[in-house]
Give the backbone structure.
Amino acid sequence: MFEKPKGRLALLAQGALVAAMMFVTHSATAQTIRMWSFLNPEAKSGREIVLKKLIQNFEAANPGVKVLVEVQVWQQMSEKFLAAHQTGTAPDVMWVHSSRLVDAVKAGSLASFEELFLKNWTKDDIADVDGPFWNHGASPNAHYQFMHSRSVAGQFYRIDLFKEAGIDPASLTTWPKFIEAAQKLTVKDANGSVTRWGFGQALSAEAAFNPVVFSVILDKDKAAFDQQGRALWATPSGIEGLNLQVDMVRKFKITPESAVSMRSDDLYDQFNAGRMAMIRGAAARIPRSMQVLGAEKVGYLPTPSFTNGKTSPTEVLGWSLGVWSKSSQKTLAGKLVEYMSSKEADTMWVMEGGVVPMRKSTVTNNPEFFAKPENAYLVAIAKEMTEAGWLAPAGVGAGWNEELNKAAQDVLTNNTDPKAALQKAEVAFNRTNNRR
Amino acid sequence: MRTNMSGQSYVTPAMALLILVLIAPSLYGFYFSLFDIKYLKATTFVGFENYTYLASDPEFIDVIVRSFVFTTLAVALTVSVALAVALWINQLSGWFALLIQIVVIMPWVVSHVVGALLFRWVFVTDLGLATYLLDQLGYPNFQPLGDRYLAMMALILYTLWRSLGFAVLLLLSGIKSIPTDLYEAAHVDGASAWQRFVKITLPMLKTPMLITLVILTVSNLNNVEAPLIVTGGGPADSTNILPLYLYMTAFSKFDFNSAIALGIGMFAANIVLALAYVKLVKRNG
C-alpha cells in the first residue's frame, strides 16, 4: 500500500507540483505574437533600441501578451514569408521589403487593415499617413501596410572633409560639379596610391544597390519600364548614364576599380573607415555612420542631375509592416502594428531611430528637432522623397539593380559596348520577369 | 536457410530518417518542378516546361561551361598539390609531421563562411594585406576581382586552400597503406625515385585518388559559399558557377520555376557522382 510522504518532503513535493501547474496554466493563457524582422531588439543601433522599447510598452499595456521577434536575414526574409504563408507557418507580424509588397498582396498573405483597426480611424488619422507610401500595394478598399524605415538611394558625404576642401554641398546639383568635387576629395600618398576616394559605388550584382545609371534614366527618360513592366534601358539616356558610371572609374578616377566587386556593405565599411569622402548608399544607413564617425561629420546629398538646380529621381525603399492574413491572432497583431505606427511610435522612430518620419504630424509637432543641424539630413531625405522619389510601380518585378550592375561590370571588365551591355541587361531582366 | 532480418532492422531507423529528410523532399521537389510556381505556390501543371525554359536561357550554357572549367581546374590542382604534400609528410616523422598535418588541415575545419571572408579580406579586396604587400613591392592597383581570369583564379585558389587538408588526409592514408616491401624490392632492382613513384605509388593510389576526385567534385559542385562570398559571381558573371547561379535565380531573381528545375538537375548529377563513389569504395574495400 502506498504511504503518503510526510513532513518537509511532502510540503516540498506539493509546492513543486503547484508551481508546475501554475507555470503550465500561465503558459497556456499567455499570448505570443511572432514577428519577423531584420531588426534585433537586443542590438544597439537606434532603430533596434526603439523596437525594443515599443515592444516593452505594448507588453506593459497588454498584460499576458508576449511579442517574440525572430530575427531574419533581410535579403531573403520576404521570400521566406511567402513560403511560410503557403505552409501556414508565417509569423503574425511581418516586415516585407517594399519591392516584394505587391507580390505579398497578390499572394493573399497580408490582412487588410480595414478588417482590423482602420474602421476606427477618423479622416484626420488617415490624412496623417496618406500618400504614395500608404497607398503602395493598396486597392480602393484595402490597405495592407505601414511603410517603415523609408529610405532613398542617395549620397552620403563627409561634412568635415567638404569644409577642409572648401566645397559647398549645396552647389553639387549637377554631375559635372559633383565629379569636380569628388576629384578634389580624392587623395593619394607619396607612392601615388589612392588613400581616399572621392566617390564610392557598389557595383556587385550580389545584394545589388540602386546604381547611378538608374537615376540618369529616370531623370532624362522619365521612365525605366514600359506599361507591361519591360525594361527600357538601352536608350541614349541609359548609355549616357552607364558611360558616366564607367568614366567615374576610368576617366575621372574618383571611384576605385574594385567597385565592380563591392557590395553596399563593403561601401559603408569603407566610408566609416574614412577611405571614401562620398558614397552612394541607402539613406536609412546614415544613422549608423553617424554613430561611428560622429553626427557632425556625416551629411546627405540628393542625387545630382544634368540640369542645374534639379534633383534626379531616385529609388525609394522601405519596409512594409503588416499582419499575416492567416494569423490566429489577427486582431492582436493588428493592434501591435497600429501601435508601432502610431504618433508616439513614429516620434520615437524618428528621434531615436534616426529614420524619416512616416506621419505628417511628426514633422509639424517637432519643428525644433528638425531645425537642429545634426538632423538636417532627415529634412534633405524627406524633401528628396517628396520631390524626386520613385517607388517601383506594381508589376515591375525584381532584379533591375542586379542587371544594371552587371552591365556596368561588363563594360568595365570586358570593354563591352555600353549599348550592347544595356541590351543584354534588358533581355535578362525581361526574361526573368516573363516579359519577352 | 533462414534469412537473417536483424541487419535490416538495424538499418531501418537510419533509412526512415533518410527518407524523411532527403528522399521524400527530393521526390516532392521533383513533383513541384512540374508546376508553374506563382508566389511560391504550385499552380498549373506544365510538365517539363520549367526544364526547357531553363535550358533556353542563353546564360545557362555559359554557367555550365564555367562550372566545368572551375571544377576541373580546382579538383586537378587540389589533388596534384595534395599528392605532393602527402608524399612529403609521409617522409617526415615525429612532432614535425604532426604539426604540418595540423597546419594543412586547419583551413578545412574552419567554417566555410569564415574562411571565405578571411580569404576575401586578405587577398582580394583593395584593403587586403596581400594587396598592400604587392603595392609596397611595386605592384599597385592589383585588383583580382576586376579581371575575369584573375577572379576565377582567386576562386580556384580559395578552393585549393580550403580543400587541400582533406585531400592530403585521404591520400596520406592511401600512401601509408602501400606495403613498404614493394619499394624495397624496387630499390634493390635499381629503380629510381621517379620510377618508384610512377610504377608503384601512383598505381597503388589509383582508388584513393579517384575517391578524392569524386568527393572534391561533389563538394565543388555544391559549394555556394565560395563564389558568393569571395567573388559574388563577378566580375560580369565570370565566376557565376552552378551553385551560385541556382542561389541567384531563386533569391535574387525570384524565378523559382527555373530554380527548382535546376535544383533537381543538380540533385541528379550528385546521385551519379555518389554512385561512382560507392562503386569505388566497394572496389577498394
User: Anything to note?
Assistant: The CA atoms of residues 157 and 214 of chain B lie 19 Å apart. Chain B has a mean pLDDT of 89.
